[in-house]
Fold this sequence. Notes:
This protein is an all-alpha fold. Helices cover about 80% and strands about 0% of the residues. It has two domains: about 10-195, Up-down Bundle (Growth Hormone, Chain: A), CATH 1.20.1250; about 205-400, Growth Hormone, Chain: A (Up-down Bundle). About 55% of the residues are buried. Residues about 1-10 have low confidence and may be disordered. It holds the Pfam family MFS_1.
Amino acid sequence: MNQHVPVSDDTLAKRNAVVLACAQSLGGASPAIVVSLGGIVGSQLVTDQAFATVPVSLMQLGIACGVIPAAMLMRRLGRRNGYLIGALVGVIGASVAASGTGSRMFWLFCLGTFLCGVYGSFVQSYRFAAADTASEAFKPRAISWVMLGGLAGGVIGPQSVYWTRDLTPAAPFAASFLAQGGLALLAVGVVLLLRAPPVVEKRSGGGRPLSEIMRQPKFIASVTAALVAYGLMSFVMTAAPLAMVACGHSIGDAALGIQWHVLSMFGPSFFTGRLIARYGKEKITALGLLLTAVAAIVGLSGLSVAHFWIALVLLGIGWNFGFIGATALVTDCYRPEERVKVQAANDFLVFGSVAIASFSAGGLLSAGGWDSVNWLVFPPVAIALALVAWQGFRRRSAAA
């Protein structure tokens, strides 16, 4: 009697995956817009350019602060209701950011980008929601479909900036943030189509104490690699649009650079899993970290549009390999009953580090220029590579 898992059982999962991919394409456009314009608008609203990238940093902080409350809200109200609330927060955040831009009030603009980050904390879990109703065989494909939505978001966001940036001459870029709010409003309608299963809260012993899990050498190596991959990506990405404009390149060039960067972040996801299966988690993680270092080398090699764009593309691919590989390594660190708390701790550490990296980018760019941003990539990469190599050696020694 195995009739409860026929092929047709994935009909709902496929439907939900398509819905979430569409929602991802709209929600994924939000951070691309903030990253493209946050530092540029910030530089127009403050006299001290060290604070120019604070709006982008606050978006990252909003993601970090929102991850755990979003999970708690969805646990209580269900995924669909949680995502509806998240999308409405996105509408409010974008509207506040547009108002801050139009009124030239820096604090109001920062509040808006922070709220956009809170919206992003809901969007981050779309890929997990796609697997809720999927069979084991379909789960990887369901997640891939949502990642395809991320690719679309990487195009929609910068293109929204490109087509709306000059619509409000009296309030530069306010129209772009209004467009961002419009995309979040469209996401409300899309999320209403989601047919998520009811939430069933499971109680268990919870496994080992979190402190014990976090002291494992493999957890330290895995999380360090994830922190470096994501943190450095955010650090360089936050500074890049501002550096491009400072070098005399256009807002459109900066927005397109972010578009290519976001596409490079999500595009490799369709074969990263196969690469990990073939070559191992440590090798692909290390390759991602090395590509991040190569991106910095390209950034140090010149200041043309091509140099910036190539560096951003390599940075995106490096993030994909490094972060997905490190995430796969983290899954080796916990037992099934420990999954929720370890994943929450991992996400909080990662997005907290992203916020810190983003906060520091503006000050470092203002103090030392684009070169200083790129030179600071190498030490963290070296540390993470050493830890990943050490973990790979330990794994091979144990297998022997």
